[in-house]
Amino acid sequence: MIQQARTPGHPAETEAEYEKIGNMKNLDLPLGADLLDEPFETLLAAARRRRDAAHPRLQTYSPKVFIPLTQLCRNLCHYCTFSQPPKAGQAAYLTREEVLAIAREGKAAGCTEALFTLGDKPELRFKAARDELERLGHASTISYLVEMCAAVSQEVGLLPHVNAGVMNREEMLALRGVSVSQGLMLETVSERLCAKGGAHYRSPDKHPAARIETIRMAGELQVPFTSGILIGIGETRAERIEALETLRDLHLAYGHIQEVIVQNFRAKPKTVMAHAPEPDMEDLLWTIAAARMIMPPNVSIQAPPNLSAADFPRLILAGINDWGGVSPVTPDHVNPEAPWPEIERLAAATAAHERILVPRLPAYPAWGLLGLDRWQAPKMAALVRASADASGWGRADCWSPGMTVDPHRTVPRLKIVSPAIEKIIGRAIAREALSEREVVSLLETRDIDMDYVCRSADLLRRETCGDTVAFVVNRNINYTNICNYKCGFCAFSKGDKSEALRGKAYDLDLNEVVRRAREAWERGATEVCLQGGIHPHYTGDTYLSLARSVRDAVPGIHIHAFSPLEVTQGAATLGLSIDAYLKMLKEAGLNTLPGTAAEILDDEVRAVICPDKLSTREWLDVAEASHRAGFRTTATIMFGHVETLEHQARHLIAIRDLQSRTGGFTEFVPLPFVHMEAPMALKGLARRGPTFREVLLMHAVARLVLHGRIANIQTSWVKLGRVGVAACLAAGANDIGGTLMNESISRAAGTRHGQELAPREMKALIASAGRKARQRDTLYGEVSDAVQQRGEDAAALEPIVLTAPVKRKVNTMMQLERL
Ligand code: SF4
Predict the structure, then answer these.
(1) What is the CA radius of gyration of the chain?
(2) N or C terminus of the chain: which is more exposed, having fewer CB within 10 Å?
(3) Atom of ligand 1 minimally distant from the CA of 486
(4) Are the C-beta atoms of residues 554 and 521 closer than 8 Å to each other?
């Protein structure tokens, strides 16, 4: 699977890498014990600079549901109210049904994380725990926890994060298979606090050495890990620094600590420390800033907002970039007296500091989506893919391509557009060639920056194309769904002898192809689009006869047919060069070619999603040869499956650069990946398509990157529906493609937007977006009133015939090629 660790959250793997991404030696402040002497404001300012360099703009939180599997604990920490002794008549553990009920409530409320928090090994102290575990069929709490994590992940789809205390290697490994991250607060390195009178007296699991060994082992086992310190329990500031340096060294050795929490002690009634003084805000801010300065820059620094009451927004001033888990449904069982601020208040407070609140998964991007092979067990990797956006953060909603878009629009909260984004857009407007990094920056934007990207694209669209939105009346004719290839995203194709897998295989009789083309012409179509699976027995002659038959039967219709893959197959089976075969296709009546089969023009992605298909170079070469032969073609991108934003950027740049040489592309068509029936998504190997934010950005960024080169950006009603298309028309698109008459490929993948959008409906859609409709032909020319009227008056379609496959002559040359 593709992984491309990059900002933010890249675990530094070696000291050298750590140096490269900017360690404390590059800072303008002394470190270690010297931090103690720094003026407070100077320290905070340095921490903010360090945070902003490594974590610009985004402030994350994890929407979680809290599952307190057991509140029995063998330790006796003097500040804790979570730990409860066994009570007669009260169960010691949540039952499976209770666990699943909490998880389902969380899922329904939009949570992605199931946070399992529990006491340490209660069975070692309480007979009640041992007896209940026996009834549950387990010898230990951790064994029961493993079963519950598996149930929550597989039955509910939440991502477990476990705080299971000190454990051995086997226990941690078992949990690694059923959770996406684990956590253990180091709390302190002070042995003093384990002595009589200390906060950790009679708490065997709180001995620093035991905790350090557990955290170290997590690194060795490649477990994405959360740790942190608890301040105000009797430790000194020097001891806090020592604890943070211990965590830093562990991270430098293994790269596994994704976040460090700075938690402030709160005095709770009915505890030994009920009257102990709490650390004040200044002390908390100082410690957060120290953590930011000591930890490698890409480790997230987190402080729980609920432990600072109304003062919580000030925590941002000390350099945090994460608020931790925030639950819309369950209380903080460890601090039940301190409710979480609701998400709305958190977002507003974050925005007041010109930062954008973003939901994340319990596994941060570098340890989650962008680092699956190294950091996640296979089943957990599938869950991460299903829950992540393209950057590895959480998906903001439940939408996927093919579903109906929620018309609700989020309004930007920030006030100031990033100067870096302004600069990139200025370069795009000036028609300068953006770099891959610049394109990625545009694709990553959110909130006001994203709004600015979309508005700029919309302005460029108006300048380039005016206010009309074009569409073409056409018919898709997919002449066969039999295909020799095994593209992981394709729900359309069938094997040669396939029976009932997603419907029957067919191989249309030429008469049926011609009948459909004639009917399309009578219904006002100016174009037929011929594409199909790569039938193993098709030869170049098959494609030629398809084109000739349609041309002879319907001389006036524009034949838009054969992707670079079909052209390649056709040429190879006849032993011809691409140039020679394109010439024959032209003579047979072909007018233009669709730029499909492009998927993502990057071989790293193609090796995963369509390993046997033509390479990036081959696709571009066929497109260039087509342009050289005098054909115009479209260009497409299918995005939102396994690729990263870097791959998307490379694709856009490849199209831009080819267009700069040939000028042969008529339009660029973003095709969001529809996952519902796609084999690779069903196996858990792909994301659930792009988020709607990513869809909007793809259209807008394409407009910016291709400005001055490709005038038309098309949006797909088949994948996005009416609401989605209208939104894309306000983000740089000026074209809504064809009426299609018989769309079948996206429907096979699971879309619910129908197989035809008649001219009248196209016009209504465009009017709903406040724009003027224009029926065009394939090359964006005019269409006569008479032809347009035929489309308006079109009769209902006759039923289609799906001709059963007949035995064709084996195409030995092609088979030899593929061997
Ligand atoms: Fe065949 Fe095209 Fe489907 Fe790939 S995408 S399996 S080449 S029909």
Answers:
(1) 30
(2) C
(3) 6
(4) yes
What is the value of pTM for the model shown?
0.92
Whole-number pLDDT of residue 407: 67
DSSP result, 126-189: -HHHHHHHHHHT-SSHHHHHHHHHHHIIIII--EEEEE--S--HHHHHHHHTT-SEEE---B--
In ligand 1, the atom with minimum distance to the C-alpha of 565 is 7
Please give the Cα distance from 189 to 379 (Å, whole number): 35
Backbone dihedral angles phi then psi of residue 681, each to the nearest 5 degrees: -75, -40
User: Sign of dihedral through CA atoms 289, 291, 295, 298?
Assistant: negative
| Half-sphere exposure of residue 696: CA atoms within 13 angstroms, side-chain side | 25
Q: Is the pLDDT of residue 310 over 90?
A: no
pLDDT score recorded for residue 18:
43
DSSP 3-state of 439: helix
Ligand 1 proximity of 492 Cβ (cutoff 6 Å): yes
Considering only CA atoms, which of 554, 452, 728 is closest in space to residue 737?
Answer: 728
3-state SS string for 291-303: HHHHCCCCCEEEC
pLDDT tens track for 155-210: 999 999 999 999 999 999 999 999 999 999 999 999 888 888 887 878 888 899 99
Measured over the CA atoms of residue 511, residue 780, residue 664 and residue 659, the dihedral's sign is negative
Contact 122/92 with Cβ under 8 angstroms? yes
Distance CA 362, CA 378 (A): 16
What does the DSSP 8-state code read for residue 714? Answer: B
Query: ∠786-790-791 over CA atoms, to 5°?
Result: 120
Q: Which of 629, 571, 622, 626 is nearest to 597 (CA)?
A: 622
285 lines ligand 1 (CB under 6 A): no
Do residues 585 and 546 touch, judged by C-beta distance below 8 A? no
Residue 227 near residue 197, CB atoms below 8 Å: no
pLDDT band at 508 (very low <50, low <70, confident <90, very high): very high
Residue (of 216, 206, 213, 321) closest to 262 by Cα position: 321
pLDDT value for 8: 37
Q: Is 534 in the pocket of ligand 1 (CB under 6 A)?
A: yes
At residue 159, what are phi and psi to the nearest 5 degrees?
-100, 115
Interatomic CA distance for residues 582 and 607, integer angstroms: 27
Q: Which pLDDT belongs to residue 309?
A: 73
Calpha distance 642→390 (Å, rounded): 8
CA distance 660 to 378: 43
564 lines ligand 1 (CB under 6 A): no
Check if the beta carbon of residue 482 is closer than 8 Å to that of residue 494.
yes
| All residues at 6 or more sequence positions from 749 whose CB lies less than 8 Å from its CB, including other chains | 402, 489, 490, 491, 492, 674, 675, 676, 677, 678
Helices (H), 629-716: 645-662, 679-682, 692-705
**Candidates 480, 530, 613, 638: which one to mutate for ligand 1, based on the most atoms within 8 Å of Cβ?**
613
Closest C-alpha among 249, 248, 314, 264 to residue 44: 314
Amino acid at 285: L
CB 319 within 8 A of CB 303: no
Separation between Cα atoms, residue 41 and residue 723, nearest integer Å: 49
Asked if 391 contacts 442 with a C-beta cutoff of 8 angstroms, the reply is: no
Q: What is the DSSP letter of 507?
A: B
Q: 203 and 209 in contact (C-beta within 8 Å)?
A: no
Q: Say yes or no: CB of residue 493 within 6 Å of ligand 1.
A: yes
Structure tokens at 332: 């903080």
Q: What are phi and psi of 225, to 5 degrees?
A: -130, 145
Least Cα distance to 507 among 488, 471, 483 occurs for 483
The residue with greater pLDDT, 644 or 497, is 644
- Work out which ligand 1 atom sits closest to the CA atom of 533: 8
